[in-house]
């Protein structure tokens, strides 16, 4: 229990938030450059400051998912990690001040695609954290799970007590456990 919760809450979630925030900041800088609110030197230096930490964070996240056996998350992270490795090996990972306007549209599209991927990874991480929370709360009794399911839909305890819990549709605990082991 402790390792899974520690892995998703203390390691993956902050790395995902940091990757999402840095990419969002880079997109904002590129839009500011396009609108001529910032000069090319400042834009390049601000974006280049976040490139290597982003590559390292993405590589660490991908390696951790591989070594801990979280194959779905690993497969989500592999394409962008390989792309980062290719850019670093070719020495094309930094934005050049003299060419920033020439590659502005391509860089914006690339960073928006990375932002979408990081958002998907964050959503999967939050989903995984929710499943681990339900799984490790000890809700193995179907009535406990029904009660939790109803509480998520903001039903009061009086409304719950007045109904027959066996008649209310809900995802079974076995289904949640199967999803939990899949991710």
UniProtKB/TrEMBL annotation:
SMART domains: Cornichon. Coiled coil: none annotated. It is found in: Membrane. It is a multi-pass membrane protein. The chain crosses the membrane at residues 7-31, 55-76, 115-138. The keyword Membrane applies. GO terms for biological process: vesicle-mediated transport. GO terms for cellular component: membrane. Keywords: Membrane, Transmembrane, Transmembrane helix. InterPro entries: Cornichon. It holds the Pfam family Cornichon. Belongs to the cornichon family. This is Protein cornichon homolog 1.
